[in-house]
Amino acid sequence: xxxWIDKAGRRHIGxxxxxxxxxxxxxxxxxxxxxxxxxxxIRSAIGRRSVAIPGDPPLTELMGIYLKxxxxxxxxxxxxxxxxxxxxxxxxxxxxETRQAVAAAIIDMAEAYEPxxxxxxxxALKKALKLAWESGRTPIDYSTTIKRxxxxxxxxxxxxxxxxxxxxDHCSEPVRAAVWIALLTGMxxxxxxxxxxxxxxxxSLTIQAGNTKTLRTRTVPIVPAxxxxxxxxxxxxxxxxxxxxxxxxxxxxxxxHVRFHDLRHSCASILINAKVPLEVVRDILGHTSxxxxxxxxxxxxGSSRDALRKLGAKxxxxxxxxxxxATRKVA
Length: 331
Known about the structure:
The structure is a single chain. By secondary structure, this protein is mostly helical. The protein has helices at residues 32-47, 59-70, 76-85, 87-90, 98-109, 115-134, 161-168, 173-185, 189-193, 239-252, 261-273, 278-285, 290-293, 304-330; strands at residues 3-5, 11-17, 20-25, 204-207, 218-221. The protein has three domains: 3-44, no CATH class; 59-145; 161-330, hpI Integrase, Chain A (Orthogonal Bundle), CATH 1.10.443. The chain has a three-stranded antiparallel beta sheet, with helices on one face. It has a two-stranded antiparallel sheet with strand order 4-5. Helix 2 packs antiparallel against helix 3 and helix 3 (76-85) packs across helix 6 (115-134). The termini are far apart.
């Protein structure tokens, strides 16, 4: 009998070939069809001259496959960061122990990371397992044995201009510039980090397709309140520097719950409250569909330049107030 079940309920596969025995133990929960598929793959491998029998490699070895794969992604360093974050829970574990490793990681990581961040790491592991299975490194597609956490995407914080000013007061100069650029344009953190002087025109910014989430070029008008902050482009800090600088600022400002992306939400909120049409807000933020923009509100009026001028008019008093406070601190 080439397939059997032991007392613990695990399925075994044993095949004799040329006087040698190939034995594989499938992980708990493997079905009869899984066992038959593995048996067929092993027999097929034995029948080839170059034998490559699926096994149970270490998860750290498989994650190495993903790290090479990440070099071809749009944001390789970010992707690698998500993969490396999971490292401590993969060490010493094999592919058949994927579920146990992920379960332990989720419990420990939940204390320090949001579900969305944990899911990025789980996603990296799922891709590593998929690549391993497709290349014949594992007998089962273990990526199907783990699931991502539910994300509470409804959590959105809308800041007033004065709250943003309070936050900006605790930032270094380049981080402060990024904060106001985000609020006055709705740009994402990554888009701001990749902005260059060549992207700054006489009266508009060009956000290159390769730097956007939707892979579409978009143009954002430059309003008076925005101009002073564009002198800091390109930023003197990189993506990680902006991330850590913003984290320090929000904690110093007593606003630890605020994320950089909330500035983009706040831009949309202020525009909507200024009676700007959803279609215009959609174009400013670069949404592919107005349905995405509808989560912000249901109001109408104006053009994108007029819309951002209204936003700038609302934000300028807060910027001025923030500068006065900063001057008093220096004095």
